[in-house]
Amino acid sequence: MHGDDVLRVSRIIFKFMSQAGDVRVDRLLYTLTRPVMPLLRLAFPNSILTTEQLGRAKIAVAQGAESKRILESRDILALSRITQPINYGLVENDKPPL
Fold first, then answer.
1. How many CB atoms lie within 10 A of CB 25?
2. What Å distances lie between residue 51 and 1, 48, 76, CA to CA?
3. For a disulfide at 80, which of 3, 56, 61, 74, Cβ 3.0-4.6 Å?
4. CB under 8 Å, gap of 24 or more: what pairs does 54-58 form?
């Protein structure tokens, strides 16, 4: 299976399980897939996205960085690299200022 196919299948499974309305099933799936996610990210680096990458891509689209109406995982990953993380006034070693 190609990486995009794996992502589509997982979306279908999560959507189906979410429609069942059982939050316990969602939590169980997240718990079971959590240890495997780093391996999936290594195997399919252009298909598995973090919520931070998705959020950064949304910001880039809102700022006009993309004009396509449908974005693939690779497009979202590229857009996530456009925006920089916000420091919120923290110093480089991530300790709050005194």
1. 14
2. 24, 10, 11
3. 56
4. 54/80, 56/80, 56/81, 56/82, 56/83, 56/85, 57/83
Q: What per-residue confidence (pLDDT) applies to 2?
A: 55
**In the numeric block, which tokens belong to residue 93?**
């070693």
Q: What pLDDT is attached to residue 12? A: 65
Cα 48 from Cα 6, distance rounded (Å): 9
pLDDT at 21: 58
Of 57, 49, 97, 63, nearest in space to 80 by CA: 57
